Amino acid sequence: MSADLRGPRGRGTRRGIMLILSSPSGTGKTTLAHRLIDQNPDLVWSVSATTRPPRKGETDGEDYFFLSDADFQAKVEAGEFFEHAEVFGRRYGTLKAPVEDALSMGRDVIFDIDWQGAKLLTEQAPRDVVRVFLLPPSLKLLKDRLVRRGQDSEDVINSRMNQAKAEIEHWSEYDYVVINDEFSRALEELAAILRAERLKRMRHPWLTDFVEALLEE
Ligand code: 5GP
Fold first, then answer.
1. Which of 41, 61, 169, 180 has its CA 20 to 30 A from that of 161?
2. Mutation choice for ligand 1 from 87, 91, 135, CB with most ligand atoms inside 8 A
């Protein structure tokens, strides 16, 4: 058994966590998620599939699996997705295989998916899902970030702002809400959520035997 399959102090196996991070685009979610992964070698990124074209600097297989409409549809029909949804008129989905591989290796998986995906994943794995909604401190700041990112046209930015408002309306469907007003604090809060969730009793089935043995001492 690899060390990362073990619970606190190396005792017993732990159930993997499916950590969902949703937010409107431009909230700093990707940067936060990558920093959290840097700090936690047992946490892996779920690479989604999408039919949208790659943005500048994005790599196929790292940021997304970029698929044609036909390839995406074929995978839907083959039952290869955990969940899939349409966002901004493009299709996005979480493939089962890489997630199951990571969870079976005792890793926790972080998902950057929208509220629809969060709902579908929660239905499928209610015990393993932890949902975090990331809020920008203001909508003005969100728009500034999208403009600065320079990856989208003005029309796309306006439509993303409308979409952002619609996404934010789902905030109360999440277990935790983090406001990204200060990067280091938001990162600390995310790390605290992950740590506390990893320690939850139900994720440590070995505790039953441990306590039984303790009481028989
Ligand atoms: P973007 O095009 O900016 O990378 O992502 C647009 C939106 O799609 C974001 O809100 C993101 O969370 C969502 N998204 C990305 N991957 C998935 C996925 O696999 N499933 C679902 N449901 N949403 C996704």
1. 61
2. 87
